[in-house]
Design goal:
The protein has 8 helices and no strands. It has 174 residues and is an all-alpha fold. It starts with a helix and ends in a 17-residue tail after the last helix.
């Protein structure tokens, strides 16, 4: 059947990907449609197979885990710790962390794909995810080896999340 063919296709794709052991277990059997233009033509924006898997996984998380509870979080204005745990269980925090520290070594585009898909269900919750990446990037880019070994594995696993602080005395953000 079509579902069995999809399962086999997902398995074969996952088998070839360097990080498939983490992500393939989270993908649903359901075949999610790719992004489409206003005319309905399929467009994949030349994404790699890894990026397509990230998109599918994040779309599944958005639709199944975030969308049903998004309004409640908007109403209560509480931080979505339970959703952050789901992100960690789904290995989403590994996307932007280098492989040598427990991540999958994805780039900024991979992070943008994940954030865009999560934002489909709730922009506020997606920002919680993206903000952790924002706080992680200074360590990745400018941290010394000791700092990277100390912080990045816990950030990649979702055991900890990062924050980013900035002030601009002349711009009103202080």
């Amino acid at each position: 059947s079509g579902q069995n063919a999809l399962i086999v296709a997902n398995f074969l794709i996952a088998k070839k990907l360097r990080w498939s052991k983490k992500y393939s277990r989270h993908l649903a059997i359901k075949d999610w449609p790719v992004s489409a233009s206003a005319e309905g033509a399929k467009m994949d924006y030349l994404l790699t197979e890894e990026q397509k898997m990230i998109r599918k996984l994040c779309r599944q998380v958005a639709d199944e885990k975030i969308k049903p509870i998004a309004a409640e979080y908007d109403k209560t204005e509480k931080f979505p710790w339970d959703v952050i745990k789901i992100f960690a269980q789904s290995d989403l925090f590994t996307i932007f962390v280098p492989t040598e520290y427990g991540g999958t070594g994805g780039g900024v585009l991979d992070l943008c794909i994940a954030t865009e898909e999560l934002s489909r269900a709730c922009g506020g919750i997606a920002v919680c995810y993206a903000a952790s990446a924002l706080g992680t990037f200074p360590i990745i880019l400018f941290g010394n080896e000791e700092q990277k070994k100390k912080y990045l594995p816990d950030l990649a696993s979702g055991k900890k999340i990062a924050a980013f602080g900035i002030t601009e005395p002349e711009a009103g953000s202080d």
